[in-house]
From TrEMBL, chain A:
It comes from the Bacteria. CDD domains: REC_Rcp-like (cd17557). Residues 8-134 form the Response regulatory domain. The keyword rRNA processing does not apply. This is Response regulator receiver domain-containing protein. The keyword S-adenosyl-L-methionine does not apply.
From TrEMBL, chain B:
GO terms for biological process: osmosensory signaling via phosphorelay pathway. The keyword Transferase applies. It comes from Sphingomonas aerolata. Residues 259-495 form the Histidine kinase domain. Gene3D superfamilies: 1.10.287.130, Histidine kinase-like ATPase, C-terminal domain. GO terms for molecular function: phosphorelay response regulator activity; phosphorelay sensor kinase activity; protein kinase activator activity. This is histidine kinase.
Length: 147, 502
C-alpha cells in the first residue's frame, strides 16, 4: 500500500480473537500500516467521521468491516460511509464477515462496498484468505478523503 | 379453517336427559293408570254382578210369595166350591213352591241373615203344606164340611202371616243391600272416570314430551350430520393445513440451525486460529530447548523438556482434532440448513427414472459392496422437487448398500404405491436392520444406530427427513434387527396442490 501517504486501516470487528488473527495475518503479508480496531459501530463511526486523527479529518483510510456488530448492523455503517456527500464515500470498504447469504452480499455491493469476503470456516483457509487480502491491500491505491 | 368440535354443549345434553327422564316417568305412570283402570273395571263388573244377584234374590222372594199366595187361593177356592178346577190349580202351584224355596235358598246361601230367616220360613211352609194337603184330601173325600171346619181352626192363617212377614223382611234386607251395592257401584264408576281422565291427561303430557324429545334428537342428528359433512369436506384442507404447519416448523428449525451454526463458527475460527498460533509458537520453543540441551544441558529441567517436546504438541494435537470434528459437524448443520433453504420447484417426476440415475451414479459403490439394486416398474409418477427426491432416494439407497448383514449379499429394492393423493415410495433392503428402539433416533441429527463400523457423521437420514418434510411428506422405518429394513417415504401426489404457502 502507498506507505508514504500513511493510509490508516480501520478494522470494525466485534470479535477480539478474529481481530487479532486478522491483524496478525495482514502483518504476515508485509503490511505495516497503522491498524485501528473498534469492536462496536458507534465508536467506529465517531472515529471515522469526527475524530481529529480520523480518516474524515486527516489522511486516507481503508475500512475492514464486519457485518455482525453488537450495536448496529455493518450495513448501516456501510450506508453512512457510502452516503451521498459523505467525506469517506470513496474510501475502499472491505466487508469481511461470516455471512454468505446471497441477498446480504447483493445488498452490500448495492450500498457501494468494494470487496466482499466471506470468512472461511476453516482456519487454514481463513489465514490464507487474510494473507491474500493483505497482499491485495499492498497494491491497491487509496484516494484521500475529501475535506 | 376453524377447528370443528363434535361435542354438544353441556346444557343441551342436560335438557335432553331431563326430557328423557320425564318421558320415562310418564310412561311408568301411564302403565300404572292402565293397571288401575283394569282393576277398577274388574271390580265394577263384580259390583254389577252383585246388584244383579240382589235383583235375582228379590225376584226369587217375590216368586215364592206369589206361589204361596196362589197355592193358598187355590186351596180356599177348592174348600169353598169343591170344583176340580181349583184342585188342579192347587197341584200346579204346590209343585212350584218347593223349587221356588230351593232357588231362594241357593241364591241367599252367602248371606247368613237371610239364611236364618229362610230357616224360619221353610218349616212353616212345610207345616202349611201339610195342612193344605189335609184340606185337599178331605174335600177329595167329599167331606167339605169337615175340611171347612178344620180350616177355620187350624194354624194356616197365622202361618201365612208369619211367612209373609219374614219374606217382607227378606225383601227389605235385599233392598238395603241393593242400596249399598248401587252406591258402591256409583263410587266405583266415579273412580273409573277420574282415573281414566287422569290417564288421558298423562297420555297428553307424555305425547307432548315425546314430540319434544323426538324433535330435539332429530335436530341434534341433523346438526351432527351437517358437522360430519363439514368435517368430511374440510378434511383435505386440514391435512394441507397440518402439512403447512409442519413445513413452517421445519423452516423455522432450518433457520435456527443456520443461525446457530453460523454463530458457532466465529468462536471456532478463534480456537483454531490461536491453536495454529500456539503450534507456531511452540516450534521456536522446542528449537530453543534443543539448543540449550546441546550448549548448556544443565539449564534444561526435565519438566521443561517434557513440556516443550510432549505436552505442548499433544495438547495442540487434541485441540486440533476436536476442533476439526466440531468444524465438520457445524459444516454439516450448515449444509443441512442451506439445503433446507433451497427453493423447491415442483415438476412431474418418474421415481423409477430417478432411481436409475442414482444406481448409475453409485454403480461402482454397489458393485464394491456386493449388492444388487432392483427398481419396480412402473412406479407411481408424482409432482415434486426432482433434486430433493433424488437426494432422499440417493441417501436411502446408499445407506442400504452401506449397512449390510455380514455374509449376506445385499438385495435392495425400490418399490412404490399410490394411495389416494399420496405416493408411498419404499426402499427395502435385507441388511443388518435397526433395533426397534432406534427407529426414531436414526432420523435425528448426529445419531447413528448399531455398530459404528462405517464412516459417517449421522447426518444423512436427518437430511432425508428434513427434505421429506419440505416436500410435504413424512418418512419412517420398519425394521427387525438382523433382517433388513424398509424406509417408507410418504409424499403428496402433487406438491403444488399440497403446499398452499409455496
Amino acid at each position: 500500500m502507498n506507505d508514504h501517504k500513511s493510509v490508516g486501516i480501520v478494522m470494525i470487528e466485534d470479535d477480539e480473537g478474529h481481530a487479532r488473527l486478522i491483524e496478525k495475518n495482514i502483518r504476515r503479508a508485509g503490511i505495516l500500516n497503522d491498524i485501528r480496531h473498534f469492536t462496536d459501530g458507534t465508536t467506529a463511526l465517531d472515529f471515522l467521521f469526527d475524530a481529529a486523527d480520523g480518516p474524515a479529518k486527516s489522511g486516507p483510510a481503508l475500512i475492514l468491516l464486519d457485518l455482525n456488530l453488537p450495536d448496529m448492523s455493518g450495513t448501516d455503517i456501510l450506508a453512512r460511509i457510502k452516503a451521498e456527500g459523505s467525506p469517506l464515500r470513496r474510501a475502499p470498504v472491505v466487508v469481511l464477515t461470516t455471512t454468505d447469504d446471497k441477498v446480504e452480499i447483493q445488498r452490500c455491493y448495492d450500498l457501494g462496498c468494494n470487496v466482499y469476503i466471506t470468512k472461511p470456516v476453516n482456519y487454514e483457509s481463513f489465514a490464507q484468505a487474510i494473507r491474500q487480502l493483505g497482499l491485495f491491500l499492498s497494491v491497491i491505491q487509496v484516494p484521500s478523503a475529501e475535506s | 379453517m376453524a377447528r370443528i368440535s363434535l361435542k354438544l354443549p353441556q346444557s343441551e345434553g342436560r335438557i335432553a336427559r331431563w326430557l328423557v327422564a320425564f318421558m320415562t316417568l310418564g310412561f311408568v305412570a301411564l302403565a300404572a293408570a292402565a293397571v288401575a283402570i283394569g282393576w277398577i273395571t274388574v271390580r265394577n263388573a263384580r259390583y254389577t254382578a252383585d246388584i244383579l244377584h240382589t235383583q235375582d234374590v228379590r225376584q226369587a222372594i217375590a216368586t215364592l210369595q206369589v206361589e204361596m199366595e196362589q197355592s193358598e187361593t187355590a186351596r180356599r177356592g177348592y174348600l169353598l166350591t169343591g170344583l176340580p178346577l181349583f184342585s188342579t190349580a192347587y197341584e200346579t202351584t204346590a209343585q212350584r213352591l218347593a223349587p221356588a224355596l230351593t232357588a231362594l235358598r241357593s241364591s241367599t246361601h252367602d248371606n247368613p241373615r237371610q239364611t236364618a230367616r229362610l230357616d224360619l220360613i221353610e218349616p212353616r211352609v212345610g207345616q202349611l203344606r201339610s195342612l193344605r194337603t189335609q184340606s185337599i184330601a178331605l174335600v177329595d173325600a167329599g167331606r167339605i164340611g169337615e175340611a171347612q171346619r178344620r180350616f177355620a181352626v187350624d194354624a194356616s192363617v197365622p202361618l201365612m202371616r208369619s211367612i209373609r212377614y219374614r219374606l217382607r223382611a227378606m225383601a227389605a234386607e235385599e233392598v238395603r243391600l241393593l242400596e249399598i251395592r248401587s252406591d258402591r257401584q256409583q263410587r266405583s264408576n266415579m273412580l273409573f272416570l277420574s282415573v281414566a281422565g287422569l290417564a288421558a291427561l298423562l297420555l297428553l303430557v307424555v305425547a307432548i314430551l315425546a314430540i319434544l324429545v323426538i324433535r330435539r334428537y332429530t335436530a341434534d342428528l341433523g346438526a351432527s350430520r351437517d358437522r360430519l359433512h363439514l368435517l368430511n369436506e374440510t378434511l383435505e384442507d386440514q391435512v394441507v393445513e397440518r402439512t403447512a404447519d409442519l413445513s413452517r416448523a421445519n423452516d423455522e428449525i432450518q433457520r435456527f440451525a443456520y443461525i446457530v451454526s453460523h454463530d458457532l463458527r466465529s468462536p471456532l475460527v478463534n480456537v483454531m486460529g490461536f491453536t495454529a498460533e500456539l503450534a507456531e509458537a511452540a516450534a521456536p520453543l522446542a528449537a530453543l530447548i534443543d539448543r540449550a540441551e546441546a550448549i548448556a544441558p544443565e539449564i534444561v529441567t526435565p519438566e521443561a523438556r517434557i513440556a516443550a517436546r510432549e505436552d505442548l504438541p499433544e495438547a495442540i494435537g487434541f485441540i486440533r482434532a476436536s476442533t476439526q470434528k466440531m468444524d465438520r459437524l457445524i459444516n454439516a448443520i450448515l449444509k443441512l440448513s442451506r439445503e433446507g433453504r433451497r427453493s423447491i420447484t415442483p415438476e412431474p417426476v418418474d421415481p423409477a427414472a430417478v432411481g436409475d440415475a442414482i444406481v448409475a451414479s453409485i454403480q461402482h459403490l454397489i458393485d464394491d459392496r456386493g449388492a444388487t439394486v432392483t427398481i419396480d416398474r412402473p412406479l407411481p409418477a408424482l409432482v415434486t422437487d426432482r433434486l430433493a427426491l433424488e437426494q432422499i432416494l440417493s441417501n436411502l439407497i446408499e445407506n442400504a448398500t452401506k449397512y449390510l448383514q455380514p455374509g449376506r449379499p445385499g438385495v435392495i429394492r425400490l418399490a412404490g404405491t399410490r394411495e389416494r393423493n399420496r405416493v408411498i415410495l419404499s426402499v427395502i433392503d435385507n441388511g443388518r436392520g435397526i433395533a426397534p428402539g432406534d427407529h426414531q433416533r436414526v432420523f435425528d441429527l448426529f445419531r447413528r444406530a448399531g455398530p459404528q463400523d462405517q464412516p459417517g457423521e449421522g447426518i444423512g437420514l436427518a437430511h432425508v427427513r428434513a427434505l421429506a418434510y419440505r416436500l410435504g411428506g413424512t418418512i419412517d422405518v420398519v425394521s427387525t434387527l438382523g433382517e433388513g429394513a424398509t424406509f417408507r417415504l410418504n409424499l403428496p401426489f402433487d406438491l403444488r396442490l399440497q403446499d398452499p404457502v409455496a
